[in-house]
Amino acid sequence: MILSSHESLFDYEATLQACARGDKQALQRLYQQESARLLGVAQRLVRDRALAEDIVHDAFLKIWSQAASFDASRGSARGWVFSVTRHLALNTLRNTAREVRVKDDGSEDHHEQATLEGWQETGDAFDWRVNPGRITSCLEQLEPVRRNCVFHAYVDGYSHQEIAQKIGAPLGTVKAWIKRSLTALRECMG
């Protein structure tokens, strides 16, 4: 990613350290620096502006309360700020998917429709809104275990390692299933 001169001059690590010391102006500077970008990240994930705004608000509360937990040896301060927002958005999607399943008395069709809205925008994701019936049909052609792996990865936001642990399969197998499933979905979608 290419940073503008304004972004490259902003000291994220020092700002987080100031937040950890209780400097409210540091949080305000961070908000002014990144809130629009964080809103974009959240909105791409949840596809709902009002919900994304709530997520960004919650993210800044969490950044404020947990700034002292930032560890520079594990990554950049800016990356940490973005990961806080991304994880909150993914948790929101995960919780929304659970609510849909509970309200729907287990009907998979409605669950698939609702959770497809939460697919992350990555090179592997599809725009299900172009033809929602088509992608549902394509998903149904996948073996259930492979379909579940795709949902866990792109709807629930689980890592491949988490999926492997959750379903009790080797990591390499899970990676292969997801890769092959995405290839099959691309071919099916044309």
Automatic annotation (TrEMBL):
<dbReference type="InterPro" id="IPR014284">
    <property type="entry name" value="RNA_pol_sigma-70_dom"/>
</dbReference>
<dbReference type="InterPro" id="IPR036388">
    <property type="entry name" value="WH-like_DNA-bd_sf"/>
</dbReference>
<dbReference type="GO" id="GO:0016987">
    <property type="term" value="F:sigma factor activity"/>
</dbReference>
<keyword id="KW-0805">Transcription regulation</keyword>
<dbReference type="InterPro" id="IPR007627">
    <property type="entry name" value="RNA_pol_sigma70_r2"/>
</dbReference>
<protein>
    <submittedName>
        <fullName>RNA polymerase sigma-70 protein</fullName>
    </submittedName>
</protein>
<keyword id="KW-0804">Transcription</keyword>
<dbReference type="InterPro" id="IPR013325">
    <property type="entry name" value="RNA_pol_sigma_r2"/>
</dbReference>
<comment type="similarity">
    <text>Belongs to the sigma-70 factor family. ECF subfamily.</text>
</comment>
<dbReference type="Pfam" id="PF08281">
    <property type="entry name" value="Sigma70_r4_2"/>
</dbReference>
<dbReference type="GO" id="GO:0006352">
    <property type="term" value="P:DNA-templated transcription initiation"/>
</dbReference>
<dbReference type="InterPro" id="IPR013324">
    <property type="entry name" value="RNA_pol_sigma_r3/r4-like"/>
</dbReference>
<dbReference type="InterPro" id="IPR039425">
    <property type="entry name" value="RNA_pol_sigma-70-like"/>
</dbReference>
<dbReference type="InterPro" id="IPR013249">
    <property type="entry name" value="RNA_pol_sigma70_r4_t2"/>
</dbReference>
<dbReference type="GO" id="GO:0003677">
    <property type="term" value="F:DNA binding"/>
</dbReference>
<feature type="domain" description="RNA polymerase sigma-70 region 2">
    <location>
        <begin position="30"/>
        <end position="98"/>
    </location>
</feature>
<dbReference type="Pfam" id="PF04542">
    <property type="entry name" value="Sigma70_r2"/>
</dbReference>
<feature type="domain" description="RNA polymerase sigma factor 70 region 4 type 2">
    <location>
        <begin position="134"/>
        <end position="185"/>
    </location>
</feature>
<keyword id="KW-0731">Sigma factor</keyword>
